[in-house]
Backbone:
């Protein structure tokens, strides 16, 4: 039951349920990756089964593709979709301008391509992901395995020239071996603490040979849905402001109990 979830999981869950309400039959929908996006995929699966919701989903990782299929959602590739109506995804951090750090689950490359190919990107997150300035969460940068140590040195030099001091760059591991992304690459995590100029850093990173993509999503996200542990959900839009609802009020617990079991 939903009441057995931790407050953070409840927050993720209600944000995901609110976002699922934005999805309508006929839409081509980008499906994000991570624990929050997994709640979304489950909720959409429930709507497909119970309401006959008819959508085509473009997953952003092999993990999401597998979950979506298990949930009965029709899965197509981005090339088959061509363009998407909406992408819904989680984030590791978001700021007041809806700029993001993503890639904590190593899926940033497909996530950025899919989000950029969408009319709208909606982020779903628990309230703890909101920051004043991005950077407390280590910034993931996807690099090709060939010469990754040289790429790391180039990244460190670029950070020096930008006066980003006191940083470290670490190779993400999966046990004893480097983490390998869905695209066969590695992830370097940049421990920056605070990113003064995220827009500039995103551009500089992608100029470095060996870097495939970085986890800064600048001017990509249109709405953020913030979930709270008590069931409150804020739908924030930079132009239209914030709409507050409570997903667990008036029988909401029953409404979603199947999903949360
Ligand atoms: O690579 C992973 C993605 O960017 C995730 O959306 C992000 O890490 C947030 O994941 P979670 O919802 O599990 O906190």
Residues:
């Amino acid at each position: 039951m939903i009441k057995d979830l931790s407050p953070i999981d409840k927050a993720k869950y209600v944000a995901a349920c609110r976002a699922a309400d934005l999805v309508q039959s006929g839409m081509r929908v980008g499906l994000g990756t991570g624990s929050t996006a997994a709640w979304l995929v489950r909720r959409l699966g429930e709507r497909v089964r119970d309401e006959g919701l008819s959508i085509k989903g473009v997953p952003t990782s092999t993990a999401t593709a597998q979950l979506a299929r298990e949930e009965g959602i029709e899965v197509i590739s981005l090339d088959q979709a061509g363009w998407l109506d909406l992408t819904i995804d989680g984030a590791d951090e978001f700021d007041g301008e809806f700029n993001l750090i993503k890639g904590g689950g190593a899926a940033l490359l497909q996530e950025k391509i899919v989000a950029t190919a969408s009319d709208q990107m909606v982020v779903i997150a628990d309230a703890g992901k909101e920051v004043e300035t991005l950077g407390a969460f280590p910034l993931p940068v996807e690099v090709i395995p060939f010469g990754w140590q040289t790429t790391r040195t180039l990244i460190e030099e670029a950070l020096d020239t930008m006066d980003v001091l006191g940083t470290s760059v670490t190779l993400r591991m999966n046990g004893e071996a480097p983490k390998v992304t869905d695209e066969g690459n590695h992830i370097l995590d940049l421990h920056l603490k605070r990113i003064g100029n995220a827009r500039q850093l995103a551009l500089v990173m992608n100029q470095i040979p060996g870097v495939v993509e970085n986890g800064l999503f600048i001017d990509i996200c249109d709405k953020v849905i913030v979930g709270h542990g008590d069931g409150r959900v804020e739908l924030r839009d930079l132009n239209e402001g914030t709409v507050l609802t409570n997903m667990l009020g008036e029988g909401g617990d029953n409404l979603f109990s199947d999903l949360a079991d």
